[in-house]
């Protein structure tokens, strides 16, 4: 069965070449939906033979669903621009292409942090559905935490190998991303009429740290595991602190 690989991008010149190079062995078509990048992202994508389309950013869920519409084939593999397939996952996907198209496929994601891959804690195995029939699945969730939802009755099989996620090259980048994503998450929670409490501002971050560092063995990644766990707690705190502020501002103005 033929496969379309789809990627959304915005100023990803640092990552997009690696991503697309990893897709070339498995994809019969590569679709890149770019949000008007100002760097060399589009040129790099075109140099790899990708079909590049432009669309102002609609939101993570909306943009990824738009990318699905542009895919020529029903079997779709969706990656982020800062992701790539490892060799084992490449072979697993090639084998899956020979099967019936009536299944969706999940795979583990392993994140690169500063100078190494994180193998424990809340970040691994970080299982994701990324290979599916686009007539039987769609992106959903609260931005920026998108996920694939498959139709009822569609089996989900797990593939061996990892998506390699080159997410953070420095602690500074992680902190900046926490600030960006927590704002997007807080806005999404406001739209769903979710509420934050003073007690939650204390206990939610504390639980995020405990779960990642102790219960999911993040401590086995040493210093990096500790930094990841602290930053996960920080992200949780920022999200609910911003939600708490927004709901108080809304109450004061009503």
Secondary structure layout plus pairing:
Layout: E1 3-9, H1 16-23, E2 29-34, H2 41-47, E3 51-54, H3 60-70, E4 75-80, E5 83-85, H4 87-96, E6 104-113, E7 116-118, E8 128-133, E9 137-142, E10 145-150, E11 156-168, H5 171-191, H6 198-215, H7 222-253
Parallel strand pairs: 1-2, 1-4, 2-3, 6-11
Antiparallel strand pairs: 4-8, 5-11, 6-7, 6-8, 9-10
Short structural summary:
This protein has helices spanning 16-23, 41-47, 60-70, 87-96, 171-191, 198-215, 222-253; strands at residues 3-9, 29-34, 51-54, 75-80, 83-85, 104-113, 116-118, 128-133, 137-142, 145-150, 156-168. Strands 1, 2, 3, 4, 5, 6, 7, 8 and 11 form a nine-stranded mixed beta sheet that branches. A two-stranded antiparallel sheet has the order 9-10. A hairpin with a 2-residue loop joins strand 9 (137-142) and strand 10.
Architecture overview:
This protein is α/β, with parallel strands linked by helices and about 250 residues long. It is built from seven helices and eleven strands. The chain has helices spanning about 15-25, 40-45, 60-70, 85-95, 170-190, 200-215, 220-254; strands at about 5-10, 30-35, 50-55, 75-80, 85, 105-115, 115-120, 130-135, 135-140, 145-150, 155-170. Strands 1, 2, 3, 4, 5, 6, 7, 8 and 11 form a nine-stranded mixed sheet that branches. α1 links the parallel β1 (about 5-10) and β2 (about 30-35). α5 (about 170-190) runs parallel beside α7 and α6 (about 200-215) runs antiparallel to α7. The longest helix is centred in the last third of the chain and has 32 residues, at about 220-254. The radius of gyration is 19 Å and the shape is globular. It starts with a strand and ends with a helix.
């Amino acid at each position: 069965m033929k496969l379309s690989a789809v990627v959304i991008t915005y100023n990803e010149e640092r990552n997009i070449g690696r991503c697309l190079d990893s897709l070339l062995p498995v994809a019969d078509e590569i679709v890149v939906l770019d949000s008007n990048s100002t760097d060399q992202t589009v040129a790099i994508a075109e140099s790899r033979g990708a079909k590049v389309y432009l669309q102002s950013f609609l939101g993570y869920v909306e943009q990824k669903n738009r990318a699905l519409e542009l895919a020529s084939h029903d079997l779709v593999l969706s990656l982020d621009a800062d992701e790539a397939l490892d060799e084992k996952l490449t072979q697993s996907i090639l084998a899956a292409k020979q099967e019936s198209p009536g299944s969706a496929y999940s795979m583990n994601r392993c994140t690169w942090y500063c100078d190494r891959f994180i193998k424990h804690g809340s970040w691994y195995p970080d299982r994701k559905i990324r290979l599916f029939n686009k007539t039987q699945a769609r992106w959903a969730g609260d931005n920026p935490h998108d996920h694939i939802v498959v139709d009822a009755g569609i089996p989900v099989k797990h593939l061996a190998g990892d998506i390699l996620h080159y997410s953070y090259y420095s602690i500074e980048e992680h902190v900046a991303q926490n600030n960006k994503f927590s704002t997007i998450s807080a806005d999404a929670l406001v739209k769903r009429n979710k509420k934050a409490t003073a007690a939650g501002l204390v206990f939610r971050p504390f639980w995020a740290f405990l779960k990642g560092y102790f219960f999911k063995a993040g401590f086995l990644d040493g210093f990096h595991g500790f930094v990841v766990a602290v930053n996960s707690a920080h992200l949780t705190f920022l999200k609910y602190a911003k939600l708490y502020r927004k709901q108080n501002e809304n109450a004061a103005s009503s």
